[in-house]
């Protein structure tokens, strides 16, 4: 199984990039993994939030094929402990899933089309994190199941 982490926009913080890249390297040592960064869509003053989410959603969905599993990292998703998340990832591996996609949405969340396509929604916490910090937190959590 190959795991993908799809994100909207780049991170400019060097210290954050260093941490994220460290976990990406660790993950890739044990399992096929690929981060995918989708370029930010510039939101002009006249662009409604829904239009922005729809454009980002189209770019996200473009990454997927028919049998792929799509997991949204979303504040409304199911909360799991690290062990529960590890079991979740292992179940996907044992189910013979070829490609597992985790998605970090843009600042305004996901489009309706992405929600409809999603197989799962997971919340990392009741707390709110910046989309940049989620990259590091999630990469660390993704690394854990690979070790068990």
From TrEMBL:
GO molecular function: rRNA (pseudouridine-N3-)-methyltransferase activity
Gene3D superfamilies for this protein: 3.40.1280.10
GO cellular component, one term: cytoplasm
Any Pfam family the entry gives: SPOUT_MTase
Name recorded for this polypeptide: Ribosomal RNA large subunit methyltransferase H
The encoding gene: rlmH
Database matches in CDD domains: RlmH-like (cd18081)
Chain sites annotated for binding S-adenosyl-L-methionine: 73, 105, 124-129
Catalytically driven reaction(s): pseudouridine(1915) in 23S rRNA + S-adenosyl-L-methionine = N(3)-methylpseudouridine(1915) in 23S rRNA + S-adenosyl-L-homocysteine + H(+)
Species, as recorded: Geofilum rubicundum JCM 15548
Taxonomic superkingdom: Bacteria
Quaternary structure annotation from Swiss-Prot or TrEMBL: Homodimer.
Localization, UniProt: Cytoplasm
């Amino acid at each position: 199984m190959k795991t993908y982490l799809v994100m909207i926009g780049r991170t400019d913080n060097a210290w954050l990039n260093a941490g994220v890249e460290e976990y990406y390297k660790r993950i890739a040592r044990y399992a096929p993994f690929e981060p995918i960064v989708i370029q930010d869509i510039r939101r002009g003053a006249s662009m409604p939030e829904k239009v922005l989410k729809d454009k980002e959603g189209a770019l996200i969905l473009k990454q997927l094929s028919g049998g792929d599993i799509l997991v949204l990292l979303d504040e409304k998703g199911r909360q799991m402990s690290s062990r529960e998340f590890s079991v979740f990832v292992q179940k996907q591996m044992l189910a013979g899933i070829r490609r597992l996609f985790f998605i970090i949405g843009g600042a305004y969340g996901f489009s309706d089309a992405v929600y409809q396509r999603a197989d799962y929604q997971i919340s990392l916490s009741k707390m709110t994190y910046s989309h940049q910090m989620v990259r590091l937190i999630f990469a660390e959590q993704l690394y854990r199941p690979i070790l068990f």
